[in-house]
Design goal:
The chain is mostly beta strands and 218 residues long. Helices cover 2% and strands 34% of the residues. The protein has a domain of 149 residues: Jelly Rolls, CATH 2.60.120.
Length: 218
Amino acid sequence: MADNVAITAGSGTAVAADDIGNVFYQRVKLTLGADGAADADWDLGQQLSAASAPVVIASDQSVVPVVPSATVITVTPTVDTKIYASGDLLFDSAEVASAVRANGGIALLKTVIVIDKADQGVAFTLLFANAATDFGTLNNAPDPDDSEVATVIGTVAIATGDYIDLGGARVACVKNIDLLLKAGAATTSLYIAGVNGTGTPTYGAATDLVFYLGFLRS
């Protein structure tokens, strides 16, 4: 169709206009409309979805990446103050709050830092679970049942060689773990428990172990 119209003053040609405060503003069609069709009115304010016009952004990228957020979460579990034996439950489930961004979400564990205020420096295994599982009684062999074992979603070994001795305390740092962990369907928390290795640690206070857990959250 002919899109250009010659307007001769006084000929009576109709021109689309909008009356705003008794002043007529000529309406100009945006290029979003189909040929021969009038565009909807556009407003700078927020529109309802029913009044919105779809826009397709040209791109050869099929997936838009989501930048993960990094976080470090501090956890202080409860340990016993009596001497441990090999294989004992070092501490039971302690909450890692907001380890993932949404219920049932996923986080990538990157680092584990252990602050050992009692200067024991023993090897142990860190258990990660998607629920506040009861792994048993502190200072005794773990005794979870089949359903409780099923909540375990990962383990990290802390070796005696991971510690540095700072005199009256020790610090261990385990890096580049890259362990994917998925929270339970109705929570953003994860949980950790510890199983003693072959050492016989004795802690002076129930809060002598502190963990800094570094995550990337999707």
